[in-house]
Amino acid sequence: MERHITLPLTEELARTLHAGDTVYLTGTIYTSRDAGHKRMCETLERGDPLPFDPKDATIYYVGPTPAKPGQVIGSAGPTTSGRMDAYAPTMMSVGARGMIGKGARLPEVVEAMKKYSGVYFGAIGGAGALLAKCIKKAEIVDYEDLGAEALRRLYVEEMPLVVIIDCQGNNLYEQGRKAYLEQTEGRGEV
């Protein structure tokens, strides 16, 4: 199903999304990679507030390149999501709901998604320049010392994504593999 979604990603909205849905996302998202996630989780462990409100937030796992003159941001392709798996359950426990990246997630992350109604969106790796065209505003919120991994607030319009794992734990990677194997076995190709 094709969906045009305006953020924030509330629990009610998250529950309407299903693995395999094509989504065009509009609204405010945040960027962070492993160094930023580590810092955010350490902040939470100390009992200090995060530099943004995580409630119903969507975090894009990206380290964008510097913007060229006249651009809002440089190339902004997804980072491998597994690098954030150690931190994702903690971030969801404080309200973050959406994650954008590429690649598989650990079972612990999927369990946290089911518990906190999280959604994992896949962005196309290697399409960073095209994805950057969807980013209309970009500003550093904190962690500027991390360079490309600084915490940023982005405003995106019609960012093309696919729901890889929905909040029921349905996983497009697993469903696609199963469907392919069933199809090829039926033709005697395996």
Automatic annotation (TrEMBL):
InterPro entries: Fe-S_hydro-lyase_TtdB-typ_cat, Fe-S_hydroAse_TtdB_cat_sf. This is Fe-S-containing hydro-lyase. SUPFAM superfamilies: FumA C-terminal domain-like. Residues 9-175 form the Fe-S hydro-lyase tartrate dehydratase beta-type catalytic domain. GO terms for molecular function: hydro-lyase activity. It comes from the Bacteria. Keywords: Lyase. Belongs to the class-I fumarase family. The lineage of its organism: Bacteria, Bacillati, Bacillota, Clostridia, Lachnospirales. Pfam families: Fumerase_C.
